[in-house]
User: What shape does this take?
Amino acid sequence: MNTIAQLIISFFTKLTKFFSELKAEPLAEIKKEDDKEKTSPRLTKVVSKVTPRKEEIEEIDLPELLKVATKPSKGKPMETFKDTTIILDAGHGGMIDGKYQTNGKRSPEWSDGTQLFEGVNNREVIKLVTKELDTLGIKYVLTADTEKDVPLQTRCDIANEVEGDSVFISMHSNAGGGKGFESFSYARKGLSGKYNDIFYEEFPKVFPKERVRFNVNVKTPTAKTANFKVLRDTNMPAVLLEFFFMDTENDCRILMSPEGRQKIAEVIVNGIKRIIKKD
Assistant: This one.
């Protein structure tokens, strides 16, 4: 056998041995590693920065949240009030480790370096409201008893789990370059529309110099309506309150001041007392 033939036979012998030692299992492991890379912790971490609330909110235990959020009346409720649970909804998310939990929903940074984060401010106002409700012995549930940005559907689910007579009140601040106050119900008719009118009446009693924004697209200006999910998909009378415009500096200064937040809470509490007052 000549030298060239020996080299060819040696080459194919080594090649056959190589393929016989290369099993399917290592190839499967390599493929698994490729799959892991597609959903690696590093990639998940990057995605969570874009949507930081999805994984956290899925951990919410609805029955447990209801159990914790429902506050029993402290002392004997005033006999002038109905046995009604007030469902308080602080719009958007709060602050966790210095990071605001909602994209947008904030004021510009003003010349003195101050800035309002709507969800944080909403929670501050709701705290003032609950303090007064505790004093009055009025029961309430918080749909966002957390700094996380609770999804709208979860807020509706929490509200719809409440037994007995209840009223849903969502606290927000406005944006878009306007001024003043407006609030919304899903429809003009029914209790939601009636309760919405009450807040339109209560706001100027506390803020007599501030603008009240009516629906002027009708013959007689009225309180506003909107197809917001928390108004449409809750089973009880519901209103959404928009106090001042956070992107208008004078309005924002009211929202950021302790006096302004206390007055906003006063408007809400006064409206609640009218809503649940016995006939």
The first strand starts at residue 85 and ends at 90.
